Amino acid sequence: xxxxxxxxxxxxxxxxxxxxxxxxxxxxxxxxxxxxxxxxxxxxxxxxxxxxxxxxxxxxxxxxxxxxxxxxxxxxxxxxxxxxxxxxxxxxxxxxxxxxxxxxxxxxxxxxxxxxxxxxxxxxxxxxxxxxxxxxxxxxxxxxxxxxxxxxxxxxxxxxxxxxxxxxxxxxxxxxxxxxxxxxxxxxxxxxxxxxxxxxxxxxxxxxxxxxxxxxxxxxxxxxxxxxxxxxxxxxxxxxxxxxxxxxxxxxxxxxxxxxxxxx
Length: 264
Hints:
Helix content: 40-55%
Strand order of the largest sheet: 1-2-4-3-5-6-7-8
Number of domains: 1
Radius of gyration: 17 Å
CATH class: Alpha Beta
CATH architecture: 3-Layer(aba) Sandwich
Number of strands: 8
Oligomer: single chain
Structural class: alpha/beta
Strand content: 15-25%
């Protein structure tokens, strides 16, 4: 188990693969911990230094009281990379992790060599949507809204066929701290990376699951259109978590992007 004291928090992370290899950093979605990337590891660990971490309020990382700001999440990732003495990393951000990646490029461009934005956007949701989500979670708990969230996370085929694995993802979601979930909802509510996205000047790949109910492909495409020179791909089949439902295709697209841009 690896951990570090960053910004007054104990942050749980994993640092695997060759230390002298190019670094790829994975930032996960709302309501998940860094195990959401497990199915991708085999594709990268032999040739890259792989960093995963639990953002504040998630997994084994500390959960300070809500609300959080996107700047808090960005500062936590910057602090972790500084702790690891890493610069010029490939940052892969899923959902809120993609918002964090965009914010990191805006505030600490020295840390980023390229970005993969997966099922995310420059702006996600509306103020009423996030306020309703926060109210529901704080009053009734995450389990009260998990059926709706899981329907957006996963394709109908996955929900119907992968019953055992599906239960584990439900457990992960429902065991997220209320402070971590509602606090990050507040960060998403208040974050707008529209101008930051326009200024991104490193290679960018945007990926979207075709059945994503949280950040549909057209929303991801709208962010692609803000980022000059970016590449956009729709992965046929999965919902909001292509790294879970289609790990081989997802890893292949990321590896192609790395090769095409001489990042390894």
